[in-house]
Each structure stands twice: as structure tokens, then as C-alpha cells.
Amino acid sequence: MSTIIIIAAVVVIIAWIIGLQRKLVSKEELCNNAMSQIGVQQASRWDALSALADLTRSYSDYEYKAITDIISKRRPIGSGSSVSDANLQEKCIGEALGRIIAVGEQYPELKASETYVKTMESVNTYENQVRMSRMVFNDSVTALNRTVRQFPNNLVAGLLGFKVKDYLAEGVGKESMPSMNLNK
Fold it and tell me: Which of 98, 81, 5 shows the shortest CA–CA distance to 43?
């Protein structure tokens, strides 16, 4: 009888470990997916910024070169990217956008261009989508971290190689970003 109890206890523990491993994998995949979504939205913003850079070319070759130098720092963000990778790309996007807006301020005819206005609206839309993707990422990280850190899950999570993930900080590079209000 005691052998059956021991075997049953071992089976329950193994089933719990398997269930926990599956839960951790699922939560980690949600984090990876959310980071990929950030990358997709950032790529759209980079494309819009590239189009805006092309618009600035006819107004200022110097600014065009400066903006394209920043755009050349573009790196894809995907499921394997780190928080620092995403933050670095946000900073670069902010720099490029700041330069583009500065050119728009110097050349009112550029700023009044329908293409410029529509593209800036697209950039704003993509910015909102990135913000939402960042929130989803941080929510996913919260769920994973909670599971990884809670006892007794933390014992098994550590043995299986699951670690706490970092959060994306809001406002990376935003403190120096100019307003995107086109109605100034």
C-alpha cells in the first residue's frame, strides 16, 4: 500500500512539473511574441521615417544625410531581441523623428506638404501601436515573472532554466522628442 502511495505522489509531482514547464513555456512564448510585435510596429515606423527622410532631401542635403545616418542604425527587433535592443531602436527612432521635425520647422512648405502631413500621421499611428505592443509585452513579462518567482514554482523554474525577464521602460528617448502636433 505504501508503495502505491509513493508512486502516486511521484506521479503527481511529475505531472505538476510537466504542467508548470508547459505553463512557463507558454508565458515565455507570449513574451517573445509581444517583442516581435514591437519589432513589426517599429519596422513600420522606420519605413515611414525613411519616406520622410526622402521628402527632406529636396530641402536640405545635410539634414537628409544626418537622418539617413540615423536610419542606417536600424536593427530588426524580433522574438529573440532583448529589452535593451528595443530601447536602443526607440532612441534611434526618436533621434530621426526629431531631425525630421526640425527640418519641417525650417521649411514650412515641406511641413505643409500633404505627403509630409499624412506620413507624420502614420508615424503617430505607429507610435500608438508600439505603445500598445510595449504594454502587452510588459503584461506578458509580469505573468511570466510572477510564475517564475513564486514558491514552489521558482525551484522548478530555476532547474528548467527559466529566468525573470526585464520590463520595457516607458519613455525611452521620449524626454527629448519634439511634439508631433502638426497644427502649430
Answer: 81
**pTM (2 decimals)?**
0.81
Residues shown for the chain: 184
Residue range 45-78, pLDDT digits in tens: 999 999 999 888 888 888 888 899 999 989 999 9
3-class DSSP assignment, residue 77: coil
Task: Decide if 147 contacts 157 (C-beta within 8 A).
Answer: yes
| Grid cell digits, residue 130 | 508600439
Query: pLDDT of 19-45, one tens digit each?
Result: 999 999 999 999 999 999 999 999 999
Which one, of 86, 105, 113, 106, lies nearest residue 179 by Cα?
A: 105
Are the CB atoms for 53 and 100 separated by under 8 Å? yes
Neighbours of 89 (CB within 10 A): 25
Residue 38: exposure state from Cβ atoms within 10 A (0-12, 13-18, ≥19)? buried
